[in-house]
Amino acid sequence: MFSNHFRKILLFGGDIAVLYLSLFIALTLRYASFPSQELWNVHKWPFFFIYLGWLLIFYMAGLYDIEKIISYADLRILVFKTMAVCGTLAILLFYLTPFFSITPKTNLILDVLISSFLIWLWRKVIFNEAIKSSKIRVFFFGKEIKEIADFVDFLSRRPQLGFEISDYAGSANVIVAPMDSKYDKKIARSLYEMTLLGKTIMSFDKFYESITGKIPVSLINEEWFFDNLTEIEKQNFEKIKRVIDLLLAFLLFVPYVAMFPLIATAIKINGKGFIFYRQKRVGKNGKIFKITKFRSMIENAEKNGAEWTKPEREDQRVTFVGNILRKTRIDELPQIWSVIKGDLSFVGPRPERPKFVKELEQKISYYAVRHLVKPGLTGWAQINFSEAAAKDAPQKLQYDLYYIKNRSLSLEISIMLKTIAVIFRSEGK
Q: pLDDT (tens digit, 9 = 90+) per residue, 72-112?
């Protein structure tokens, strides 16, 4: 059985081979013979840069997260939607930029069609391998606990993750136990004896985190925070992150200024009211600050008080222009100023309004931990979970805790890249 990490490397290497094979087949079909060295060289380097862009789009779209794909139908839809975007990018680069010496038409169409089929076929092979390969047998202590029972069911329905649920500890490779098991002398003794038999012992929170990218808030205690949130180790990272925030803010400031007249005019034409609106939010260490956005709702939209975000199709307060601004995240552009001031970062837990924070801190354990770090324009929760209602706050907190615990430059870059895909899908509010 391949590990998920090795499977991603295998997919990436296979993609490179598949893309160049597609180009070779396309040229062969187009000219009814194997391409000459001269013809191959003419196409090789322009398509090299195109393929680099495609591989980046594959990553942003989740084509390397094969373990998260549920069915063959989902896989097929994801591949062909992604390749449609890739084909569009190739057309734009070949015909609207001066960097390439060729402007292929038939060759490009053939290449996109062939590579779409082969990329899908390659992933189907890997997906089949993930489903049918030998599994790691896992035994769970505490299956009477709802959260653990639900997770066992989750694993059972996803064989591509590479695990098989064992009913007996003796036949398992991995033993998973709740955090508080170490305080039960009988269970602790059993776990020790299983260690001597060569079994891998994991706490449920660590196993759950490694599979889902979340922290099971309802099954951790204060000790988890002592062991996992060592902020002193993040000091250098936070300094580097601040520099990156400023660089990105200044880079985005130019297009923001260029787009401002058009956006402002559209907002004014669509209805009366101010161009901007400001709201109080809760930031790092509970500091209250104000964010500024382009107005996307009718005037006096909150005359009856603050309301949780609703889906745009259900919220009659959102204007036509506002709906476009929200879907493209253009309404967020004025928050660049908050990033420059240091109230916001580009990546972090989304800041909530003081009224909502007060309510959620009373209902959800450890909710205040979100305020250990600077809030962000996008975050780990936004790229993994698209809902934004009050009932979804516990789920988002699980993702936020994962981000706070594991934040790093590589995770920041991954979140920013995948945010682009979320914007195209109009998700992740």
A: 899 999 999 999 999 999 988 888 776 666 778 888 999 99
Q: What is the pLDDT of residue 408?
A: 94
For residues 280 and 358, is the Cβ–Cβ distance under 8 A? no
Pairing of strands 200-203, 163-165: unpaired
CA distance 124 to 189: 44
Interior CA angle at 220 toward 214 and 226, to 5°?
Answer: 100
Pairwise CA distance, residues 151 & 218, whole Å: 13
pLDDT band at 416 (very low <50, low <70, confident <90, very high): very high
Question: Of 231, 218, 215, 220, nearest to 285 (Cα)?
Answer: 231
**Distance of alpha carbon 382 from alpha carbon 422, whole angstroms:** 8
Query: Would the CA dihedral through 350, 353, 354, 356 be positive or negative?
Result: negative
H helical segments located in 320-369: 320-327, 336-341, 354-363
Q: Look at residues 401, 392, 387, 325 and name the one whose alpha carbon lies nearest to residue 356.
A: 392
Domains and CATH numbers, the chain: 4-132 (no CATH), 136-212 (3.40.50.10190), 233-425 (no CATH)
* Cβ atoms of 204 and 140 closer than 8 Å: yes
- Contact between 236 and 209 (Cβ < 8 Å): no
| Residue-wise pLDDT tens digits, 35-65 | 999 989 888 888 999 999 999 999 999 999 9
Confidence of residue 131 (pLDDT cuts 50, 70, 90): confident
